[in-house]
Fold each of these.
Amino acid sequence: MSNFGFLHLRLVNPYDVAFQNARSAVGAADVLANAEKFETVAEAVADCSLVVGTTAVGHRDLQHSLQRLEAGAPLIRRHLATGPCALLFGSEKFGLSNQDMSHCHWLMHIPTREEHFSMNLGQAVAVCLYELKRDADAPVNPGEGSPASSAEIERIHDVLLTALRASNYPKLNTSDSFDGAVRRLVRRLSLQTGDAEFLLGMLRQIVWKLKRNEQAES
Amino acid sequence: MSNFGFLHLRLVNPYDVAFQNARSAVGAADVLANAEKFETVAEAVADCSLVVGTTAVGHRDLQHSLQRLEAGAPLIRRHLATGPCALLFGSEKFGLSNQDMSHCHWLMHIPTREEHFSMNLGQAVAVCLYELKRDADAPVNPGEGSPASSAEIERIHDVLLTALRASNYPKLNTSDSFDGAVRRLVRRLSLQTGDAEFLLGMLRQIVWKLKRNEQAES
């Protein structure tokens, strides 16, 4: 809850030993210190204008409309603009009872595989709150730096060919298309500017050493 | 992992006591029984053509490109069509070391609030795997049954007005627009067909009782 910025925890009849242990969890102190205790679900959700219950598909209750998390989250976000919403989770072992569910406007489930639909409670809460905060428009990070220019790629291609020539790489003389194959290979590396310079520096050093050895031999 | 259908767990130097305890977890037996142990990250990811490391933003490592989970997941899904991918998680306490990260093509983080970026390991894994299986096109479930027809809403409106008349509801005679206000109220209930019938039955019973009392009085 604290990771995703949901700071209002309400507990209905918590098991006090577990609750006191949880209060000592690293980093979550504020959420737990401010958690409110209630004796009934009705009291806990009294000021909420939307109550969404969570359930594993295996316990599907046909009395309520059931939404997949991906579809339910936008409905909750829309509601939050107008009033408070409670997301209701049952106990780890039994989930929500029919009585608990009668306080819910609708139910939501996390899509899991049929063979294993029962989730760890903490993981289920994390997944639901992640989805509520999810940013569908998060841009893909193109990576640090900018892609290497064609000129940089060409320099790498040139130095690599020089190194191969100095190493008597066999295909160099037998294949007419080898030059193009090397250029395409270097392009496929999707090098960033910094990495292109780094690679070029290494290749130049190799070429220098190869040529020095050549001179020493002759 | 088992909830979301990721069945290949690889462990690098696991703490054996914890590993043996985990093997006994309810429902996850197959994933753990088939888990493979390795001595180094290099061996664990040897056959993977994409290795994505996970990190909290607080430990951001500028040597790598860093993607938000929402943006990174589609890149991973695209890669999975062509070859195996490893999603690498560090230990609960320390996360991935720089040495571990050097085996990664890029890094991914779960967007959390700045004040609390360090996540529970099991919750972080659940959130990442949920996102990998997430269906952006999941349709909103319109609920069981179909919305009540206008005719059904009109019948409820009629019977409700009859009940109010029989109850001497004061506004009935003082406001010309009361009729429309009741109709709009009934529309706002967004009743499903079944619920509309249920409500109509209750109202008809109330009207029956009110009229019977009336007859008994007269």
Note: The mean pLDDT of chain A is 86.
Amino acid sequence: MNEEQLNDTDDLQERLREVESLLARYRQSLVAALDPESSQPAQDAAQNTALTAQILNDLRVRLDAMHPADVAYALEALPLEERLLVWDMVRAERDGEILLEVSDAVRETLIDAMERHELVAATESLDTDELADLVPDLPQEVVEDVFQALPPEEQAQLRAAISYPEGTVGALMDFDMVTVREDVTLEVVLRYLRRFDELPEHTDKIFVIDRDERLEGVLTLESLLTHDPDSDVRAAMKKDVVRFQPEDKAEEAAQAFERYDLVSAPVVDAENRVVGRLTLVAVVDFIREESEAEQLANAGLREEEDIFASVWDSVKNRWAWLAVNLVTAFIASRVIGVFETSIEKLVALAALMPIVAGIGGNSGNQTVTMIVRAIAMGQVKPDATRRLLKKELGVALINGTLWGGLLGALAWWLYESISLGLVMTAAMTLNLLLAAFAGVGIPMLRQRLGADPAIGGSVMITALTDSGGFFIFLGLATLFLM
Amino acid sequence: MNEEQLNDTDDLQERLREVESLLARYRQSLVAALDPESSQPAQDAAQNTALTAQILNDLRVRLDAMHPADVAYALEALPLEERLLVWDMVRAERDGEILLEVSDAVRETLIDAMERHELVAATESLDTDELADLVPDLPQEVVEDVFQALPPEEQAQLRAAISYPEGTVGALMDFDMVTVREDVTLEVVLRYLRRFDELPEHTDKIFVIDRDERLEGVLTLESLLTHDPDSDVRAAMKKDVVRFQPEDKAEEAAQAFERYDLVSAPVVDAENRVVGRLTLVAVVDFIREESEAEQLANAGLREEEDIFASVWDSVKNRWAWLAVNLVTAFIASRVIGVFETSIEKLVALAALMPIVAGIGGNSGNQTVTMIVRAIAMGQVKPDATRRLLKKELGVALINGTLWGGLLGALAWWLYESISLGLVMTAAMTLNLLLAAFAGVGIPMLRQRLGADPAIGGSVMITALTDSGGFFIFLGLATLFLM
């Protein structure tokens, strides 16, 4: 692979532009060939065909010189038709590594366009852990073909890798570990490594195992290089090793990687036998995907959208969230409906009520975000609920007095009614207190019930502070102003 | 440093519990010593003092055995008083590395509790790039002392590191690079490395430079280990190297690290001279901080909160967002105020109007999130605006027909007025179209103006769809129903 131009993002955009300009020239040549107006002589037509072939060949050469991740980037940035044309121009033996790099949505469009035998061929260049990432997206019959073609040892690895649920260390680990025994000298290790054409990517340490494959320690390449070659592995290795089990949560492993600045770590089974390896590169992919999934979920998108997806695909990706929000909005609307007589008598209530609901939602979301983050960092023990609640209620009381007082004064001035102003202030304060209660309570409760505290908190709190805000404000107004 | 127990998160919680139980015993012994009820003989008091000293010593030993990141974790999880007690028990020479690990909010509390000479001493064990991270949080006079104590070369490095703004490669890079010349043999390199006590952390490649310190290529430890020791560096090195400049955006470097699966990369100046090194570990820290800052900003928190911060600190952290939202809510309230006569005549409008506003906000936020992500991935060129707009308007039209139709039917059924139902459907559809326009337009416009498209989009779109939704619905109702 030619990596001549791997310099920076500008180059990446440059390479994308080259691909696009080749595609534009291709389109022109097609149009010229098909144009019924230009009654071109046969000779011109032949020239045109030759030109088209030449352009496609240029495109192929260009793609060959690009890093698989850059080809993936170009595929994602192109509309469907041109994407499939470029995909056709990619050499078949690179299909596998590129499929690994593209986003899920784009991967689907590429796989849909491939024949069964092409897909089987594409997987041949992949490692077992890479295969495991691809398997969920492949048609069933392709998976069977691929599986049959593997040697028994890799069949077992693939079966194991698929068996671990998403979000576990097992689903992220690879099987590219180099292992040595502790009773050899470093010189022997150096000779052993020299027999490799290349070491597995991201090898920063070698795993030291006993005769039963149990992990004894790790030998970092650094120790290997700085110690006397005549010394034993035993003398150069580190025995106190951060290790993971395949069942461990990937999120916790990611935190450990950050906390201890790891580049790779061994994965062992319950008997301390080495079964795989977790690398920082895999962890980074996980972190990125995790934080993207969270961002998308926060905005109510089920998954990342191919920006060239059809309108219908987008509607499907978004409808569930809109439905949930419409239901909560409808409930809030019914709460208002109960107080219609009061609003008829004092129409100012209609204008002021969204302010009460709004501040509750905003403040509640701040609390939820803070608590969810603290839970994720492991800094909130269940017995902390009372202390956190006390603090959040204090914040709510201050905000209620300040902002509630200000808005109450505005209401007084606008509608020339001091009692309306007082009801406004009281309602805002009460809704802020409700938001603080729910903001602490909802994530803590979800954690205690074993659910992910990060999910759905925002929808629930907004639903509560909307309906609650309308109820508190209109209820107080009905009691004291009617 | 004893790393006996670096295994996983359960152990981390275990270590935290040990620290906490020592603190609890310490408190008990203090209470026993100070209890005026127990008229204890002097002998008991002396025993108690000895016990207290013993407990503090146990705590000191326990902390000594912990990884700096774990001490930082414990400090973050403790209330202020106990945090400062533990901080006192940490050996002074470890203060620096622990200050680097704690969150900004907690770092502030620790630095506030330290004397000038303690702070200067704490920085002595740090590398220049680590110092640069700490400098913004240190009092001015400490910074001056620290700077004076550095050798001239490190003064220059520190000055350079501080000069790069946050979010650039320069602010993330370190100066721990190992360099060799291309005309030596690998055997010479191996001997050279053996002279190091330890290599800089996360060294996966050695930078190959010419006599003017210009980057010629990189020699990965892997090639060093798998090539014949008698061959030249020139033969084993890779010439096509992903390199960065200190001025490059950290976000783009992070994308390149992910795209090309890098563990470290050279940083060069405009003349291609090696000036530093960027590691994946630093990039991961950056990614995490970036995504956390985004999460916090989305919820309207200015910065991460120490969960033990005072109520006032929390109020200050959150007030700006609440103020902005109250202003937009107030504007929306005034829009409603304009239509008070209509609401008085048909109070159903008050109950239905939050639904119209709500669906616009939700749908607009989905669009903004999608567009902002696509812009961040570099997949949206300015000329794509029209195509994206067409798609989003299509999605809005479908959602308007479906959900607007459904809610219109509900309104018809609830209030027995088909014309009210039709106004509801029309208003929801129009507000969804407005949301689509703004959802595409706001981030694209911000990008074209050179602003960060990710910031503030959500507030702006919600403000627009709230006021817009009320205006459209109440306006249509006034036109057609009054």
Note: Confidence is low (pLDDT under 50) at residues 1-7 of chain A.
Amino acid sequence: MKACLAQIHVLPGQPAANTETMLKAIAAARAQAAELVVFPEMAIPGYLLGDSWERDAFLRECEACGHRIREASKGIVVVFGNVGLDWRRRNEDGRVRKYNALFVAENGRFIGPRGGTYDFVVKTLLPNYREFDDSRYFYDLRRLAAEEGKSLEQALTPVITERMALGCILCEDAWDADYGVSPLDLLKRHGADLFVNCSCSPFTLNKNVKRNRMFAAHAERLEKPLLYVNSVGIQNNGKTVYTFDGASCIYDAHAHQIGLPARFEAGLLQADIPLDQSEFARPLDAREDGVADIYQALVFGIREFMQMLGVSRVVVGVSGGIDSAVTAALYSRILSRENILLVNLPSRFNSPTTVKLARTLAANLGCYYVEAPIEDSVRLTTAQVNGLAIASVDGSLRARLALSDFMIENVQARDRSSRLLAAFAAAFGGVFTCNANKAEATVGYTTLYGDLAGYLAALADLWKGEVYALGRYLNETVFQREVIPAGCFDLTPSAELGPAQAVDQGLGDPLIYPYHDRLFASWVETWHRTTPEEILEWYLAGTLEQQLGYKGKLADLFPSAREFIADLERWWRQYNGMGVAKRIQAPPILAIKRRAFGFDHREAQMGVWFSGRYLELKKQALAHQG
Amino acid sequence: MKACLAQIHVLPGQPAANTETMLKAIAAARAQAAELVVFPEMAIPGYLLGDSWERDAFLRECEACGHRIREASKGIVVVFGNVGLDWRRRNEDGRVRKYNALFVAENGRFIGPRGGTYDFVVKTLLPNYREFDDSRYFYDLRRLAAEEGKSLEQALTPVITERMALGCILCEDAWDADYGVSPLDLLKRHGADLFVNCSCSPFTLNKNVKRNRMFAAHAERLEKPLLYVNSVGIQNNGKTVYTFDGASCIYDAHAHQIGLPARFEAGLLQADIPLDQSEFARPLDAREDGVADIYQALVFGIREFMQMLGVSRVVVGVSGGIDSAVTAALYSRILSRENILLVNLPSRFNSPTTVKLARTLAANLGCYYVEAPIEDSVRLTTAQVNGLAIASVDGSLRARLALSDFMIENVQARDRSSRLLAAFAAAFGGVFTCNANKAEATVGYTTLYGDLAGYLAALADLWKGEVYALGRYLNETVFQREVIPAGCFDLTPSAELGPAQAVDQGLGDPLIYPYHDRLFASWVETWHRTTPEEILEWYLAGTLEQQLGYKGKLADLFPSAREFIADLERWWRQYNGMGVAKRIQAPPILAIKRRAFGFDHREAQMGVWFSGRYLELKKQALAHQG
């Protein structure tokens, strides 16, 4: 059976544009004599649309676009995702009834599941974790079945086209491990010749290898081919930006798989699907993701995000450190050199070493470069505020303001970003970047309106160690020369905001990245998130290195439990206190892994919490120490 | 029957502290010889906790705290909300099974619903709109019943204490209009002497009057008293901060109601509840909320937010305009005058009129005041960027930067906030405020890192007209004298960033607030949100004034459809474009009404959408005009 998997580029919130893309893909599939063409989930509206689902005019347009696709289905079976509407019923929020739906059109007609309520298939399993909010907008098949007094098995039937019985599901329906019900298995009982999974599934590091394993196992169990079609593009929920890598493919009943050669590219995969259980030649892709995939996702995500905003020029503040160097190097793979301006913004605390590194980086990239000292402005601000007499108008209150060294550190950081980089970006006709990494973002080791400002935080889902690895990959594999100067890797990481952070004396950030990267990951990224209670328990049991995957020895970092606990509490407080406050006003973060800050990892400001058990363990540990 | 409604102050994420509060309330109720004491929903953990529900250590602590409450129930029935855990089962995200649960303890034992699975009551209806994400964290009773092969009616049974059958529900369970099932009616079938609704329900303008109407109708239909217990405090989801006003009360079967005298105050309502259907003396509170309630919620919310952050001093940039004047006046009701510093930050574009208004306001409030001109710094920034030659290091690329007047407007705004107000706040030992109103926030008529910066945007859920009304209320009712100078009300609203915004010439903002307030409200706040399609349809039908509740005449604002459409599209583009980008980095917003920006009204960056129908209507309208 000749089929086309239409891995299209979906623009969220632009149904008319997506419909045009789909009509072209249908024409191309027809030209290749395909009998079936399959599009991703929510191909018409897009998926991450915030509360735009509450706009009835938008819903009507999506519905109308669906009819245009239906009309184009002469002589071909077209499967696509769209919002399914029932204007006579209501969702539980009182708004119009909406389904995350899969439509099958053939010869100008929609074909619903056999004996079903609607002329579309309703998604059964609605994900409600990370960035997914399906239940906020959509009614699911389990509730619909209950409402109609049916069992789920009765409601989950195949779609019967002229030639085949299609077992149709949407995305999460195949990720059924924790739902206590398997839509695919229920469909199998009714008999299907072929299974189709339409998805809108963001790239997450190592998700593809997991999906290949799971979906191949499904196909083996179902004894039928399983088509997986995912979209390409970027979508976001405001605070967090997701890339969609496509990676559409077909699994056969023998744990084999064929797919498109490239991720992150729109394309039409044309394949002859053996309905008779013969095998594809190609084995399952079991490759783990690595730094090359991170690089690819970042470049794709940044490029797409800029395109969406209509921005084509960028200003990067380059300190001589690794984060800004990697950021600049990444942009040089996206924009031509005349669209990039690197700005080094030295104060008296910046060493000649780092200024030289910034300049060398700019020379290597060939882009615009300028040095803009902040000394005069910081002096002006200090003079304007420090020592200033303030009073009430009647003179009955009088006081004098004073800026501490720490406050002047923040003055410098804000001067760089909000005063200069923002002005440079405007004058250059572009935007400026936020270069923060995930360790800094976790504990708010950044200045609000300072180095935390920018239009996008592209590296903020990468730990410091991952930023170094990406830098090495850029030099060794992408550029195949030393574009990022070796000094950027060798330098002590430092904000260079005061004499205590003098890199030439080996002074710098208070973060011990190899350890803190791993510690913070256990707070943020693990499915069962740790708190000081688990960390201290493991420390006392002598298993913390192993639990965190930290290669060094904790005894080398912390001579005793007292120092260990002080460090643990310091960063835990920062993570739950100022860290949250700063992230609320942080730029959008490009998600790479399975827990990006923003609306992937949701947070409230509510102060710092230590469990009673932690406080008990701490008392014991310190008492023991004497 | 003697009962106490314990309207406690709940600290989100602080189970141990909340448990102490509850133990004190139980002791007080016992001292009053009460037989029953009822606490709010999620009294132990708090409710809006972001993804802290994923921390197993936190869950274990909540469970342990629940047992402490249980142990304190000797001789009294204690009803309270907590997370209900089933460590052997899983949620659909694979994490431990969690319920939004209500516990009833008596004589040291938990009493579950008759014949139920657990020793706690499970919430049936989980809200998934606005700030509510119950389905993200909790399993509901409908799914539990289905999992166990029961009907919902079988699962929804009363809790039988020594003396009574209690019909127990949680918050949304009583807001059942759109769910197709009424937990209260199902409970009634089993027979109950008394119904209890434990809630954690944020203040929203006019929600109380609606609840009184609905809950009184429930009590009439149930023919039994209904106790409503809500918490006091603030909780947030990062981007949006909610106040909780308590307003706990008892409804009898005759649409009468008794409650605590004050909203937004913790307290114990002690009442003799007539189980025999005799009536309370007091009629239903059917009062609509007004500006006094807005004022009360704002003062409460700001005070609590500052307490949570541990902040007690504030810097307000005062321009002479109404927004900053109202902000300053509000803070003067929260902090003593020596903890408030007003800063006027004039440039050469600021009129003597506005500087004088700022000074008069400060004199009226008696707090610290200082004028800090930004002229030198703006000149320095302009000199540093405008006309600057930039080049690649090898000199092969050369260009010159230029700052337009518009860019220099933004330089001024950022200079004020990120350079000066931030430094003033640090030196003053406090924070600085964001004074943006909701109209500005909607269309991003603000500068990022400029007037959109600050620790909290207290007025950003109020339209400009509502800010004026609040200002009048402050003068007339709160201060009972002209604290906010009359000039602040009379002035043309203006950013004063350039000669085109000279207030003394009557020039100012491009927003026509009386109309745009209403237009934007229809995009943001209505349950069925409008788009340009509906707006243009109504305009063409001559009904737009009425649809929006705009008191003026559109013909006076826009001589023809061309001007009307140009204005509509300008602001729609801003709302969906830069407006979203700016809101992503905006401070937390204090929610007052039913759709605050942040994580109440969720948004994605995805460019601007106009429906096909709108484009068609527009073509007709413009063609018609010729």
Note: The domain at 2-288 of chain A is CATH 3.60.110.10 (Nitrilase/N-carbamoyl-D-aminoacid amidohydrolase).
Amino acid sequence: MRDSYTVEPIGHVLCSRSEAEDDDWDNETSEIILDLTRIDEDATAGLKDFSHIEVIYLFDKVRDEKIVSGARHPRGNKDWPSVGILAQRGKNRPNRLGATICELQQVEGKRLVLKGLDAIDGTPVLDVKPVMSGFLPRSEITEPQWAIEIMSGYWN
Amino acid sequence: MRDSYTVEPIGHVLCSRSEAEDDDWDNETSEIILDLTRIDEDATAGLKDFSHIEVIYLFDKVRDEKIVSGARHPRGNKDWPSVGILAQRGKNRPNRLGATICELQQVEGKRLVLKGLDAIDGTPVLDVKPVMSGFLPRSEITEPQWAIEIMSGYWN
């Protein structure tokens, strides 16, 4: 038997975008509303001393039959190479986990105000972590050309 | 009723460290062995074009009663302020998720060889994502002094 684990949202995303779109995420100001039945209000004590947080969330709208376990063209675009699902960041992935670093603009009780969270309204949030410089890459990053092209209009 | 989701490991960590320790993680060379009943071998196609990956994993050794849902001193060290569990990256957290950026040294079939993965032997891996420059912070990072101090011997 395969091992499995249960995760429960600690909160949900509140924002104006209700459908998955590929680009222009910086136009959104998003909030995370923490669920105080799952986490205490002082779970965010000291968080505002960090400029950025990483949000781990779940692409809950992705249906099982859409999950890719092999390779595909990112966004279905044949100008880019067919690469494995672990070599891209698309949502149709095993376990449907998203992880995004965003700017923390405000912390107000159970409410976090963010810029640059690429998750739609209602998305279940599984974790929030502070971005520490010590956890960013410690050596130079290289990436393929398609990874630069795919991000060209992503934030804006 | 609260919503919950099931996640299943796509692989496991193989490394020489079998107990959680706080420091010196760069001394470890770790591997992820993918589970080919959960994911296809071509899931890693093209991954080697990235120098770094982010690994999402589960601190499966943390028992429920150890999970912190409020605030505490990081590592129990009173020299550092008591801050919320969402303002630190310790393992005793709701949903027990870890997320670490590490260097990808080799991809060989179902085997990924890594440097800088701070997870012990046997840790369930839930996701692997390529590190794209477009997903790193796009504005200057600030963090409190304790977050710099706590990382001083972490990698080495």
Note: The first helix of chain B runs from residue 145 to 150.
